Amino acid sequence: MFTSEIKNTHNEDISILVKANNHPWNYLCECGDASNLTIKEIQNCNAIFISHTHIDHFVNFDAVIRHQIGIQRRVIICGPENIGKQVQSRIQSYSWNLINEESITYEIREMISDTEIITYELTPPLWELKKINTYNSAILFEESDFIVTGVLLNHKIPSLAYQFTEKDTVKINLTSGNFNGGPWIKELKKAFISGKNDSIITINKEEYKAEDLFYLLNIQKGDSLGIIMDHAPSVENHQKIKEHFYGCNTVLIESFYKNEDQYFAILNYHSFAKMSGTIMKESAVKHPIPVHFSRKYSEEDIKKLTHEFFEAYHS
Length: 315
What we know:
Layout: E1 2-6, E2 16-20, E3 26-29, H1 39-43, E4 45-49, H2 55-58, H3 61-68, E5 74-80, H4 83-92, E6 105-113, E7 116-122, E8 130-136, E9 139-142, E10 146-154, E11 158-166, E12 169-172, H5 184-194, E13 200-203, E14 206-209, E15 217-220, E16 224-228, H6 235-245, E17 250-254, H7 262-267, H8 273-282, E18 287-291, H9 299-314
Parallel strand pairs: 3-4, 4-5, 5-6, 16-17, 17-18
Antiparallel strand pairs: 1-2, 2-3, 6-7, 7-8, 9-10, 10-11, 11-16, 12-15, 13-14
Helix pairs in contact: 8-9
């Protein structure tokens, strides 16, 4: 299960902290100026996901670097094409002669297209951008129990949207049979996952065919969380969103403008309340959350915008 916390106030830039259940690390989506993001949360980040590098999404990256130097481990940074050079430029604008190579390693993963990713590595003190490899996939990041995929949207520049998808798990219901727990459960799950129906499972010295015990098992569908930042309200973008996020449990989606300001949304390649709510409905998203509003809006404006969003979603 994923939890997401918006770390910015309504008049700050966007920054979202994602956590996975029973997982030791944080995951930072967007590096906007956010006063509620703590040093400890930054230091505990295992990966950073940037949609694009407009200043309101990237301005706080210097603070991230400042607090991660010295953690002595690898941190992944994902983003669209050229994110590697932009990260390198930000870092190289400072002097690092007192920092050793073991202080931190940044691994950069650039999504060049919806199926092509280039990886680089950056280490102090020179921070040379070293290309590691290129691979064909939509998977930008993977842990043992979840993956993060990306899809590129049009914001007049590429804007990378992310989906965190928890892997399905196999659960056992012992009340469905007359058995007690034990090591056999792990063996049964292993046989189920690998499709070895004829495996022999031993319970209290009695042998059973694995497939005869499969009725005790059920598949628990994994959670899913989407992060969709700046994008034009275009047919092409909406088609991509529907394909990539259809049926997602929770999606945080930019709703930059009120409906009355949709002219500016179209002009500036942003979405607006009604359109964001509508695409969430068409994508069968269970729990949509409008985020990332124009800083010109007051709290009352944002309440109106949010009402317009959910009015479209529930219509």
